[in-house]
Predict the 3D structure of the following.
Amino acid sequence: MHGFKRFLLRGNLVDLAVAVVVGAAFGTMVKSMVQDLLTPLIAAIGGQPDFSALRFTVHHSVFRYGDFINALIAFVVVACALYFFIVLPFSKLLETWMPTPQEPAPTATCPHCKSTIAVDAAACAFCTRDVEPQLVGAGPVSHRR
């Protein structure tokens, strides 16, 4: 029972609960915006006053595709809001704080001691023997004569 109490009182669980409640409220707000603002605006242009009233019947089965259109518009609005107000700014912030790592310089293997050295090295830093500088991708380093 002590472990269960610790689980319930962990900060992550409280943060998750707050996120779910705020997300549900945001979803309700977006649904209302779609039904009360966007759909009438589209209706003013297209002539259909209420998408939720759109339906068709096949063998006494009613298909309410207007509700689906409202839900689809709400989904697109939520996805755009998340991308432009959360994902994009957070990505820019991460780029500022954590720059992408540079690609490492090309390396070769010393033929004498098998250490990793720079491709354009004239001498091995480990065994101090002369080596042939190599072009990138030219293969293993050979001994200089």
